Amino acid sequence: MSYTSLLIHSVTLLLQSEGAEDRYGNTTQVFTPGATVNARVQPVRSTSQGGREILANRDMRVSWFQVFLPAGTAIDALDMLTWQGKRLQIDGPPAVVYDGTGEHHIEAVAKLIEGG
Known about the structure:
- This protein is mainly β.
- It has one helix spanning 52-55; strands at 9-16, 31-49, 60-70, 80-83, 86-90, 95-98, 103-115.
- It is built from one helix and seven strands; from the N terminus they run ββαβββββ.
- The chain has a six-stranded antiparallel beta barrel.
- Strand 4 and strand 5 form a beta hairpin.
């Protein structure tokens, strides 16, 4: 079985544009759709916060995923990706994983925030 056969999910990279400004001249985050690549997205953990007495009916759930991407994928800690209609934020710098011959794949942790 090859590594690429394990990349069973399709993700679209959303790359943060440098120096983007809103209509008032303030620096803002703008994400430009990048490549769609095969990846593997695996849940790592989730947390729930809230309750009526704490957030007035606004429960929030944060989920983290381990994302495995092909070698050479251009992604960094400021980018996002879409997977199954959800937008996940890269949480920290992605790691390049090497094998005995060179770059094997990229691993990144992604975070999904729902509610709140």
